[in-house]
Design brief:
The protein has about 325 residues and is mostly helical. About 65% of the residues lie in helices and about 0% in strands. The protein has a domain at about 10-215: Endonuclease III, domain 1 (Orthogonal Bundle). α2 (about 30-40) packs across α8 (about 130-140) and α9 crosses α12 (about 185-200). The chain is globular and about 90 Å long.
């Protein structure tokens, strides 16, 4: 979505910056290469910290070739005053490699004789040169009109309403050089960079938020927002358990799920008890009717058989009777 009357918003921002900050004039004694290297240190950092680091590099190394062949760790130890010394040292080292591989020397003064457009394209081809570095060299070494913008400056323009969210992410704000004349370009770039460095150093601090709201009272919704907190990782024991469960076959998983469901369901005790009691009642009713006549018949047969045994007696034979008699 296009911004209505962008030039008026930028002009208003320029007036507000002059009330709260003091511009810093760049050094006019540096060569094109030196301005390029200083811009590598100035990006995302305060001007004083960049000047201090640049002086330490000049005093601590023999020449720029020694800086080029030094490790990032060695350079970052010198650049401790910078916000992110590793990133700045890596950017500086890559820029020196790019210049040396393109020209086989550490001299870019020939660019002053070239057209600004051609010189700008040549600078963009060097590895390690960002859009901020290219614009700074064009503005302060080649005499062109290009306002350097780093991540913090783009955020300030977005909060002030001078840039859309997409323009902030792409790093290109159209109409900025038309709203700010070449005469005021260096001053506006210095003022904008100072508040941008504060935003980069502490984007969520109350002081930074107050400074941004002083520039744009209606930019509360566009202030930098804290990122969401990362989720806490589960303990190693839980992670191992999850891995084991994931590694088990589908059949085991389904069987486990079935057993869990069966255990969760209540046992059907009431229904079984009713069925059993009903079955017992039916059996009790049928059995007495069938057994009563059988019991009576057996009892009657036993009574009839008993007298027969008592009535039957063995008769003694005649010979036995004679033998038992006594002789006369």
């Amino acid at each position: 979505m296009a911004i209505q009357n962008r030039a008026a918003v930028i002009t208003k921002l320029y007036r507000s910056l002059k009330k709260n900050y003091t511009p810093v004039a760049p050094s006019g004694e540096r060569t094109v290469l030196q301005q390029l290297l200083f811009a590598c240190l100035l990006e995302d950092n305060q001007h004083e910290a960049a000047e201090k680091t640049y002086a330490a590099l000049v005093d601590g190394f023999f020449d720029w070739n020694e800086v080029r062949v030094s490790s990032v760790k060695e350079l970052s130890e010198v650049a401790t005053a910078l916000l992110d010394s590793d990133a700045s040292a890596r950017r500086l080292k890559r820029a020196l490699h790019g210049v040396f591989e393109a020209t086989y020397q550490f001299d870019l003064e020939d660019m002053k004789k070239q057209n600004i457009g051609a010189a700008e394209k040549k600078l963009e081809k060097f590895p390690g040169t960002t859009q901020f570095v290219v614009s700074y060299v064009v503005q302060n070494a080649l005499g062109g009109h290009s306002i350097p913008l780093d991540a913090g400056a783009l955020q300030v323009l977005y909060v002030a309403g001078a840039a859309t969210e997409r323009e902030r992410d792409t790093g290109k704000v159209p109409g900025l050089e038309r709203a700010i004349s070449k005469k005021h370009g260096v001053e506006f770039g210095s003022l904008l960079h100072q508040i941008a460095a504060d935003v980069t150093a502490s984007p969520y601090s109350p002081k930074t938020r107050k400074a941004l709201l002083d520039l744009a009272p209606d930019g509360k919704d566009r202030l930098p927002k804290r990122p969401a907190k990362p989720k806490k990782e589960a303990p190693p024991a839980q992670l191992a358990k999850k891995k084991k469960e994931a590694a088990t076959p589908a059949s085991k998983a389904t069987s486990k799920a079935a057993t869990r469901k069966a255990a969760a369901k209540p046992a059907p005790t009431k229904k079984v008890a009713k069925k059993k009691s009903a079955a017992k009642k039916t059996v009790i009713k049928k059995k007495p009717a069938a057994k009563k006549p059988v019991a009576k018949k057996k009892a009657a047969s036993k009574k009839k058989a008993a007298p027969k045994k008592k009535a039957v007696k063995k008769k003694a034979s005649v010979t036995k009777k004679l033998t038992k008699r006594k002789p006369r």
